[in-house]
Write a sequence for this structure.
């Protein structure tokens, strides 16, 4: 294809946005197929004036996400950060355009020392298990009512020799936000289906992360049990990172001193199935303070569960980033509320969440009182209702005709706990809803 460009003056810039090159990709294109494109430039006499080549990877088995604060990659093989073992495919996990904070991270599913599926570190040093493979490549949608960006896909356990150690498939969704209240984390939701004829009687599902923070000789890992947050940081400063278990499940957490300090399971020389299953069946609260040159990792999950043939286990995690622990702990309340909403635990909450139109509520999160602004005010009586994530109405009042369009709403008191709420305005002039979070 060709595009004609009008004469250009020195330093003048032009484009072909009105007549772009269109490229059709075959439906049977191999996964992660590298394509080289070449642009040839000709002068007015059709003489070759130059060329420019660039490469792109098409039909990738991973997707890159950038919400403004968080940038990462969702792999089709159950991992985040990179498409392991290929570190050239992916963005890692960055916060506010900083350094990547992970070496390896992903879901781990284990029923015994030999019935394990994941794509994190393998039994040999510097290897990866590679026992989860895609059924449907990840795809991005911006049409979810509660999250501006959603990634979905599916995978199954499969060894390179064709064996299926568990006989499970996994449907996964990742939810991302870009606003002030939820821009510092994203949610990973997994549905694990037992496709085997066997009962999985000791099933543990967790999320592992090998963190890369400032000065890895001073890394620390621990857990805040009330929030279900396994968090890590460097004693030299920098970002906090965390994994939060969102599901109602028996909490399991193992903080690794990777070189084996302080009695930790050693994983720098290989992460075998025995070590993974042992970690699931142990609890270790702290890592990083036993030896100055010792790096850390974290595994948090739920179990053991019993999963009969054909049954599904749902489990969710939030991956958190923050500059301080207090902010991250506050965000765990928001993440837990959003996870419940995504899971459909709330009922009969009328209307959809407004997307920047008729009402504004701030600050969010708030402590006891927030301010409600109604665009342009109202001339007729309206109803104000506040619902919790279960659809229960926790507050209701009238907004009188001609009342000021800026109102202070008090949700103080012990009976209204910290969490996510839906604010609803209904009447002849305005019908709108908005999510708001109480600290």
């Amino acid at each position: 294809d060709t595009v004609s460009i009008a004469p250009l003056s020195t330093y003048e810039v032009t484009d072909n946005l009105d007549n772009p090159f269109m490229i059709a990709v075959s439906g049977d294109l191999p996964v992660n197929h590298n394509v080289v494109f070449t642009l040839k430039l000709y002068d007015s006499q059709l003489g070759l004036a130059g060329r420019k080549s660039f490469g792109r990877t098409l039909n990738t088995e991973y997707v890159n996400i950038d919400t403004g604060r968080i940038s990462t990659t969702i792999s089709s093989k159950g991992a985040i950060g990179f498409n392991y073992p290929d570190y050239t495919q992916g963005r890692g996990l960055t916060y506010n355009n900083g350094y990547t904070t992970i070496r390896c991270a992903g879901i781990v599913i284990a029923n015994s020392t030999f019935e394990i599926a994941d794509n994190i570190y393998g039994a040999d040093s510097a290897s990866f298990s590679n026992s989860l493979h895609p059924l449907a490549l990840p795809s991005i949608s911006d049409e979810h009512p509660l999250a501006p960006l959603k990634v979905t896909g599916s995978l199954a356990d499969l060894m390179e020799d064709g064996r299926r150690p568990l006989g499970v498939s996994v449907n996964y969704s990742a939810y991302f936000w870009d606003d002030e209240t939820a821009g510092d984390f994203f949610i990973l939701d997994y549905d694990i289906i037992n496709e085997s004829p066997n009962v999985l009687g000791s099933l543990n599902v967790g999320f592992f992360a090998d963190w890369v923070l400032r000065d890895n000789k001073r890394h620390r890992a621990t857990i805040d049990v009330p929030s279900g947050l396994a968090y890590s940081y460097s004693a030299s400063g920098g970002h906090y990172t965390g994994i939060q278990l969102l599901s109602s499940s028996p909490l399991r957490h193992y903080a690794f001193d990777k070189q084996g300090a302080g009695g930790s399971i050693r994983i720098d020389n290989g992460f075998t199935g025995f070590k993974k299953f042992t970690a699931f069946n142990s609890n270790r609260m702290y890592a990083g303070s036993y030896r100055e040159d010792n790096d850390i990792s974290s595994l948090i999950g739920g179990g053991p569960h019993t999963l009969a043939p054909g049954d599904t286990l749902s489990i969710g995690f939030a991956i958190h980033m923050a500059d301080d622990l207090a902010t991250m702990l506050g965000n765990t309340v928001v993440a837990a509320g959003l996870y419940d909403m995504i899971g459909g635990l709330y009922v009969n909450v009328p209307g959809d969440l407004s997307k920047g139109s008729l009402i504004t509520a701030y600050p969010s999160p708030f402590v006891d009182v927030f301010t409600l602004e109604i665009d342009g005010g109202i001339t007729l009586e309206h109803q104000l209702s506040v619902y919790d994530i279960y659809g229960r109405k926790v507050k209701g009042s009238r907004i009188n005709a001609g009342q000021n369009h800026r109102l202070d709403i008090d949700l103080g008191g012990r009976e209204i706990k910290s969490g996510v709420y839906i604010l609803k305005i209904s009447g002849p002039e305005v019908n709108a809803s908005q999510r708001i979070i109480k600290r």
